[in-house]
Amino acid sequence: MNEESSFIPSLTLDPGKTEAAAAVQEAPAAEEIKKDIPIERPELSKLSPAEQAAVKEFSEKIDVLNTEQIMNYGSNAQKNISEFSGAALGTVRTKDLGEVGNMLGDLVVELKGLNFEPEEKKGFFGLFKKAGQNIAALKAQYDKAEVNVDKIVEALEGHEVVLMKDISMMDKMYEKNQEYLKELTMYILAGKLRIEQLRTVELPRLVAKAQESGQPEDAQSANDFANMIGRFEKKIHDLELTRTISIQMSPQIRMIQNNDSLMAEKIRSSIVNTIPLWKSQMVMALSLYHSEQAMKAQREVTDVTNELLTKNAQALHQGSIGIAREAERGIVDLETLKKTNQELIATLDEVRQIQDDGRARRAQAEQELGRIEGELKQKLLEMKG
Fold it and tell me: Residue 84: which residues within 8 A CB-CB, separation 6 or more?
């Protein structure tokens, strides 16, 4: 980006100052660079001409004999990286994408929780009695699910806003990390340029002087100088380790940002695609259920109508035959008259027979009474004599 390409980090040998003593806002011309540093490093080619000029100019100001300066060399950049790493870690720790995943899971549960297969009630009247109850139950399920879904969507929208802010923040963190990385790189390159110049120019000169003079103090100076170069090399190594951390931060930031983007896209897809589609499918499902219930009711009506027509036809057939038969019958059946006449004749015969038998028994009784009376009279006469 333009901002990144035009940004030139401020290098300083005094970490207590915020503005760089050697900050270069305008790059010095190439011919202004001192000729006693002929060293060129391949890493410099990765910097802009202005940055290369700033590195070369800054490297001339490094004094390896200044212990405090060497100890604090690049400490500002290291501190920035440390604070930046802590901020990035804090962002990761406070991010709870698991909650978003749980909400999406809850959303799936709500969408699957509706039951469009209510218990069927057998029988014609059971269908009409329960159809309205089933539809009301489905609407109640839908209303409850819709309320829960709306709550989940509201929470997801809140998380989406947070994720979008995090994505924007990650862009700024990435840019800031690139700035810190460039600053560290320039400190390292300036240090390596200085070390190479000292080892190829200054140290050989001190060694040659000590050998030429044979004085112990000259030898000690050369040895001390070599030790200070070694300490400065260790410092540069520490900066390279810090630079490695900064390099690792870039893909980590992009990875976190990519995860946030994927989750935000998932949330957005659920809100603008899944939820409206679910609601439209719900309307269609209820309409289809209404149609199905109407079809079942119509089928039941047709079946019952056919059954009633069949039963009525059978009843009409039986009734018509019975009525016709009854209509053709007389007031009194001939058989009944015959039987009645026979009974009457038999009754008359029996009555006459009873009367004849009565007369005969009375005649016999008169004879018997006459005989008894004669015997009684005879007995009385005998008693008188």
Answer: 173, 176, 177, 180, 246, 249
pTM of the model: 0.56
Q: Are 124 and 297 in contact (CB under 8 A)?
A: no
Per the domain annotation, does 324 fall within a domain?
A: no
Q: How many CB atoms lie within 10 A of CB 24?
A: 18
66, 169 contact by CB (below 8 A): no
Instruction: Give yes or no for a contact between 257 and 174, defined as CB atoms under 8 angstroms apart.
Output: yes
| CB atoms closer than 10 angstroms to residue 18 | 9
Residue 301 in domain: no
Give residue-wise pLDDT tens across range 317-335: 888 887 877 777 666 677 8
pLDDT per residue over 167-217, tens digit each? 888 888 888 888 888 888 889 999 999 999 999 998 899 999 989 888 889
Same domain, 338 and 282: no
Please say which residue of 257, 291, 325 terminates a domain: 291
Q: Which domain holds residue 53?
A: 2-291
Q: What angle do CA 51, 53, 54 make, to 5 degrees?
A: 65
Q: Residues 339, 286: one domain?
A: no
Q: How far apart are CA 368 and CA 330, in angstroms?
A: 57
How many domains does the chain divide into? 2
What DSSP element (H or E) covers 251?
helix 216-269
Tell me how far apart the alpha carbons of residues 27 and 47 are, in angstroms, rounded to a whole number: 12
